[in-house]
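BUG: 3D viewer hangs when loading the predicted structure for this chain

Environment: internal workstation, default settings.
Expected: structure renders.
Actual: progress bar stalls at 90%.

Input used:
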Amino acid sequence: MDNSGGYADNHQVPRNSAYQFRGQHIISDQITRDGLAIVWRELERALQQAIPGDIVEFGCYVGTTSLFIRRLLDERKQSTARHSMCTIRLPAYRPKPNQIKARPALPFKPALCA
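Structure tokens produced before the viewer hung:
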């Protein structure tokens, strides 16, 4: 991904061992090594428990966490679908007052969120 002159240039980190997790370079300052360890541990736990469903990541920015999620799935030979969405790049949607319709409340279904 070429972010020359873009916002991502401000978030690059040095290429040294302080910015590595599991031997791989952390490509931005948007998550720490400790943060990646939490994501890795919780995803690994969900995979070990064979919890069904896809993996969804909101706010992926330049994809730092996405890379490590993909690495864990590849390491475990998992074919789980993964969806990463960068909400910053989504166009703002502002409905007009006459477009807003109340919806009946749906029953709450608890789910695993890691």
